[in-house]
Amino acid sequence: MIRILFSIIFVALILALGSCAQIAFRSHKAIGRSVALLLIGLIPPVIGNLIIICSTYKLGAVIGSYIYFLGMDLAVFALLRFTFDYCAISWPNRFLRWLVGFLLIVDVVQLLLNPVFHHAFDNEAILVGGATYYRLLPFLGQSFHRIVDYGIFAAALVIFFLKTLRSPRINAERYSVILAAMVFTGLWQTFYIFSRTPIDRSMIGFGRDAADAGALFEHADQALYESKRKGRCRFTFYAAAEAI
Predict the structure, then answer these.
(1) Bridge partners of residue 136, in order along the sequence
(2) pLDDT the model gives residue 28
(3) How would you classify residue 231: left for phi > 0, otherwise alpha for psi between -120 and 50, otherwise beta?
């Protein structure tokens, strides 16, 4: 029952991410392509997680794990690009930009070498409710993977945090909403890693916030404009029918 339920959820999430990515790609807004890339980047980890959940044999779980981890590299790269575009900032220097790219490439290579050296991860079978699932056995290479991805994710968090602090109150709301969603999902992902549960529910959090990213930004902008219209030092919350 658990396997069927989460399989349905993840399939629906993949379809939603794909549809929203297509809409974002066609958007005339400058941020549209970055949003589309972020949504596309979230699809491989969800697919990998879906394969892991559906697998009753180790080979399927291993394949799903590779798709998941390589997909997370793509996802954090897309997240960082979106962060720079949405916050309207540029790289402080070329070295940091090349360093991030280099670390991601190294991580991809070392993950692909896992079948040879068995240094990154393995999967072990466990019973949950009488059904066989596979959970991760992390090794040294997996630690490197987490450091790289969590480091990039943390950098994005810091950027949004600083933008929230340094922006006027009326503009800070749009950054604080995204920051809160990222903190929530990051904590959920951290719990999944340390609890060693076979099902990564945190991907639902990523997808829930990102699948409607275009609408989220649009609603934040509408609330911002409504606050400006009413006057200074105001908070405005977007409602489905109108801005209140």
Answers:
(1) 123
(2) 87
(3) left
Which residues does residue 135 pair with via DSSP β-bridges, in sequence order? 124
The low-confidence residues of the chain, meaning pLDDT below 50, are 208, 210-211, 241-244
Residues 6+ apart with CB under 8 A from 199: 2, 6, 49, 52, 53, 133
In angstroms, the Cα distances linking 26 to 32, 37, 226, 233 are 7, 12, 26, 35
Q: Which two tokens stand for residue 35?
A: 């949003």
CA distances from residue 59 to 85, 134, 141, 192, 195 in whole angstroms, order as listed: 39, 10, 19, 22, 23
- Output the pTM of the full model: 0.81
